[in-house]
Amino acid sequence: MSDPAERVAPRRLLGLAVPALGVLAAEPLYVLVDTAVVGHLGAVPLAGLSLGGTLFTLVSTQLTFLSYGTTARTARLHGAGQRAAAVAEGVQATWLGLGVGAVLLVLAQLLAVPVAELLAGPGPVADAAASWLRVALCGAPMVLVTLAGNGWMRGVQDTVRPLRYVLAGNGVSAVLCPVLVYPVGWGLEGSAVANLVGQSIAASLFIRALIVERVPLRPVPAQMRAQLGLGRDLVLRTLAFQACFLSATSVAARTGAETAAAHQVVWQLWTFLSLVLDSLAIAAQSLVGAALGAGSAPRAKSIARQITWYGLGFGILLGTLFAALAGVLPPLFTADAAVLAVVPAAWWFFVGLQPVAGVVFALDGVFLGAGDAAYLRTATILSAVIGYLPMIWLSLAFGWGLMGIWTGLSLFMVLRLVTLLLRARSGKWARVGAVRAGS
To answer: Rounded to whole angstroms, how far apart are CA atoms 361 and 409?
Structure first.
């Protein structure tokens, strides 16, 4: 049993997790608004937005190390009582975001058309996607500054200001989007401009927060290289996720329209609940990193156990809730009887995996907070190669449909659960110090 003195008050945990959930949910909610506005322009602009938005999300997702990696490094320094050094990590992550974002901006202008045509084939949809992407990726530096800002603020256990900043940017975008698309008459490009304005507002607020901290603002290449070392492992881990999820979508689409539609319904719910559970992981990153930075491995391990139990309880609660809603929710997404008939093949996997996901995401947060990214990278890639990917492609070969696809996801999650529990039990992740050894 853990020492009660080492536990975190539930109110403190929720104080970190709830605002973090708001930040995580803000972007998907804005995308829904954007989609609703552009949808009235017609099928081609909507398809262009879908393709362009998918590419934009793919790029930004691959660079989330600016958020998660920065949290890990900053939390340790914060726990050691070195706030200025913690904020300095945010400064370097911001410079890194500006530099990488500038490269992406240039690449977007050069490659938007060929990439869009590769995915959609030459034609009006590819043209629309490329046009949107060229404007939207002008905001790439701002998006990455926002990721870095979220990272260092989470590390110093401030999740409220990031929520305010992100809501301010997305709120302005949501108001501007219909105005620029319709009365101003910019159409699909108006949506991209609104996106760019919102990203610039949020990024400027994060930059202002760094300035008022009164820490040195000059770039330090050595520090940025150290951040990139941690980032490499997180990027490879994210690539494993992307390979699995894109393969699942591809196989579902090749199986048939009803299978693809049913998979989309359940997958969107899975993605949404992943955000809910990930808010607990963000709290874990901050608290575990601070405990290790303060030199207390027992406290870090106690927090890890506590958050793991919370994750399990939360997952059981969500699984029970969505089991009860099995006959209610799917018809809200589609009225097609053929699609609704296929949904149960995935639904009960989705429900049954919630407790597993609760523990897995909680331990992800623990190990990210500890800077144990190399282990997470290896465990995720092995789980994908052994469990998920073979099952997905066998499903296509043998016609197993959604049952095969979601069995693959189940194997992936169970393998991740086993690898993470073994790591947690070993205690090797709990290395104390203001900076993790080797980073």
So the answer is: 15
Query: Any idea which residue has 């901050």 for tokens?
Result: 286
Within a 13 Å sphere around the CA of 352, how many CA atoms are in the beta-carbon half? 13
Predicted pLDDT at 3: 58
The series of mean pLDDT values per 10 residues for the chain, 439 residues long, is 68 91 84 81 83 80 86 93 95 95 93 86 89 92 95 95 95 94 93 94 97 94 86 86 82 80 82 88 93 94 95 96 92 82 92 96 94 92 92 88 90 96 94 67
Q: CA 354 to CA 347: how far, in whole Å?
A: 11
With 0.85 as the threshold, say if the pTM is over it.
yes
